[in-house]
């Protein structure tokens, strides 16, 4: 008798559990609707990276997001024929979107096509907060194609701020040296190169700063030289709401905390259903 009562009790509670799971279970359509509503509340800022290959664009993304080089490399997805996109922290809930130009500076590349691809990118969502990041190596003065692209973009999108990021500073360090000087660098060769590049792009940038993002195995400390200055520049360039979101997302002491809380709030209402 006791065994029968136990079996009946188990069956009874199994039915109750099934009822609760059906009543509280996660519906994919509801989840999709919730994520859609959440995305609409988030300030998504797009940084459009303009520069030649090996100019440090991916390293810049790696420094800002704290992701490894492998993750950043795999995260860029084709967007148009001439652009790729990397959404941070995810495609589902992006707070930052990095759009990278592809093929700029390649021999025989049609610059007009590339410019049109960038214009299409901006025109897709004209209300999104954006910033142009023009990335140039400190030793590269063959900048005619870059100048042509930025001239067209600034003529049409003069309201979009542009940051001139001059990279690979260690190529001009005085020898012998195996590390960065205090920031900002007081190196005559870098000062001359910065002045020339700023003059080459006169009228096409709003902010200019020297950067050097290296790999950890290169031995330079810090590997993201000038990162604090870059964050400060972005905060000045972007509208107040977006700059606050970036500061919260990228702060050294709370990196990723805002994203973690966001996902926890989204998930908390479903945890009990799965637990039951």
Description:
The chain is an alpha/beta fold. 49% of the residues lie in helices and 17% in strands. The longest helix is centred in the N-terminal third of the chain and has 23 residues, at 2-24. The mean pLDDT is 78.
The ordered string of helix (H) and strand (E) elements is HHEHHEEEHEHEHEEEHHH
Name the strands of the widest sheet in spatial order.
2-3-4-1-5-6-7
SS element count, helices: 10
**Rounded average pLDDT:** 78
Ranges where pLDDT stays below 50 over 5 or more residues in a row are none
Which key features would you list for this structure?
10 helices, alpha/beta, two-stranded antiparallel ribbon, 276 residues
Produce the secondary structure layout.
Layout: H1 2-24, H2 28-41, E1 45-51, H3 57-65, H4 69-75, E2 77-80, E3 83-88, E4 96-101, H5 111-124, E5 129-137, H6 144-156, E6 162-167, H7 188-200, E7 207-210, E8 212-213, E9 224-225, H8 227-237, H9 240-250, H10 257-275
Parallel strand pairs: 1-4, 1-5, 5-6, 6-7
Antiparallel strand pairs: 2-3, 3-4, 8-9
In short:
This protein has 276 residues and is α/β, with parallel strands linked by helices. The chain is 49% helix and 17% strand.
């Amino acid at each position: 008798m006791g065994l029968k009562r136990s079996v009946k009790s188990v069956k009874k509670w199994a039915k109750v559990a099934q009822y609760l799971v059906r009543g509280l279970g996660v519906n994919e359509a509801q989840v999709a609707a919730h994520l859609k509503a959440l995305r609409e509340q988030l300030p998504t800022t797009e940084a459009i990276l303009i520069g030649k290959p090996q100019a440090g664009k991916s390293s810049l993304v790696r420094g800002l997001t704290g992701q490894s080089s492998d993750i950043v490399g795999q995260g860029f997805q084709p967007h148009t024929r001439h652009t790729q996109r990397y959404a941070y922290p995810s495609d589902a809930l992006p707070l930052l979107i990095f759009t990278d130009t592809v093929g700029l500076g390649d021999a025989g590349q049609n610059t007009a096509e590339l410019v049109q691809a960038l214009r299409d990118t901006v025109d897709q969502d004209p209300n999104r907060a954006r910033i142009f990041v023009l990335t140039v190596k400190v030793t590269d003065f063959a900048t005619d194609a870059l100048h042509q692209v930025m001239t067209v973009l600034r003529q049409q999108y003069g309201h979009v701020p542009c940051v001139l990021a001059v990279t690979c500073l260690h190529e001009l360090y005085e020898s012998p040296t195996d590390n960065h000087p205090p920031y900002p660098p007081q190196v005559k060769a870098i000062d001359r190169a910065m002045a020339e590049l700023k003059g080459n792009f006169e009228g096409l940038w709003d902010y200019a700063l020297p950067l050097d993002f290296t790999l950890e195995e290169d031995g330079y400390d810090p590997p993201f030289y000038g990162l604090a200055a870059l964050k400060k520049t972005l905060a000045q360039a972007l509208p107040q709401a977006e700059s606050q979101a970036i500061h919260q997302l990228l702060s050294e002491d709370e990196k990723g905390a805002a994203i973690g809380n966001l996902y926890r709030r989204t998930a908390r209402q479903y945890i009990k259903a799965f637990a039951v």
